[in-house]
Specification:
mainly beta, Porin, 11-stranded antiparallel sheet, 16 strands, 3-stranded mixed sheet
Length: 290
């Protein structure tokens, strides 16, 4: 029996899960926003990323697509993760990880691994780098538990974002992004500060995967709260992140008939990393006044 098996989950302060054999035991850090005693999206996303990378990753491959389907609320009770290789080729591999509870599939992630080679000699246009200052040049902002934050001023936004007028029903809800709630402020550097599994260091890919779910409040919240719950997200990367800081820049949100889509660019200190896109369902959550 490992040392961690003698500890209560509440004694682990910096990890979403403790692994005990084939089971993952949620800690209080894994609890979500929408429903008591259920798991938060970043916890699920980072755990499935860790399981896929540990079992199928390798130095010759990069995860170029990571897609997470969040199909239902996962109870904060011990559970196992099933993994399988869907296709194993010389240049491309596709693997899947899933969480089921009581015979019901509640979360699934797939990772597409592409073998590293060399770019063609014929150059192709590439997306310009983010004009944001580096994290070292910015003051820290209010953290969000899972990550340290350094907000980027609206003057560095690459598009004009204007919020619609708020309705009376929206006022009074806590803004989930705090000082970043105004849409003009929806760009920042994030440094993940949680571990997916106790004792397992974060890898560059796991950092990106953990921040992938952060695009939900970045894209789908108003200045007065969040009334959409994301059902998935897809992260595209053309290389692994460099350094501890991940930049997210809001680029899109559209919704009609209770169906929303949104997207962010993802950056690191060396430039553009990729994109995160996600869909969402309208879901209103109201907390009783204190």
């Amino acid at each position: 029996m490992s040392e961690n098996e003698n500890q209560s989950p509440e004694t682990i302060s910096n990890a979403y899960f403790i692994q005990q054999g084939d089971l993952f035991v949620p800690t209080k850090r894994s609890l979500g926003y929408w429903l008591d005693n259920t798991l938060t999206g970043p916890a699920v996303a980072s755990l499935l990323a860790c399981c896929l990378e540990r079992e199928f990753g390798g130095a010759d491959y990069i995860v170029t697509r990571y897609c997470v389907d969040l199909l239902g609320m996962i109870p904060a009770d011990p559970f196992s993760v099933e993994t399988r290789m869907l296709r194993s080729g010389k240049r491309l591999q596709l693997a899947e990880a899933s969480i089921s509870v009581g015979g019901q599939l509640l979360a699934r992630a797939s990772a597409q691994f592409i073998r590293r080679t060399e770019n063609p000699d014929n150059p192709t246009w590439q997306t310009p780098d983010w004009p944001s200052p580096s994290p070292d040049e910015l003051a820290p902002g209010k953290g969000y538990g899972l990550a340290a934050v350094k907000p980027v001023a609206p003057e560095y936004a690459r598009m004009v974002r204007e919020a619609p007028d708020a309705t009376d029903s929206g006022r009074g809800n806590a803004p989930v992004l705090g000082p970043m709630a105004p849409v003009a402020c929806r760009q920042a550097w994030f440094r993940p500060e949680r571990l997916a599994i106790d004792g397992v260091p974060l890898t560059p890919f796991m950092r990106a995967a953990m921040m992938g779910d952060m695009t939900s409040p970045m894209t789908h919240s108003s200045e007065f709260g969040i009334d959409f719950i994301n059902t998935d997200f897809t992260l595209y990367l053309h290389r692994e992140p460099v350094g501890e800081w991940i930049g997210l820049e809001l680029v899109s949100h559209n919704a009609r008939d209770g169906v929303g889509i949104g997207g962010c660019w993802m950056h690191d200190v060396e430039g553009v990393l990729g994109t995160v896109n996600l869909s969402a369902i309208a879901q209103v959550r109201r907390k009783n006044a204190a």
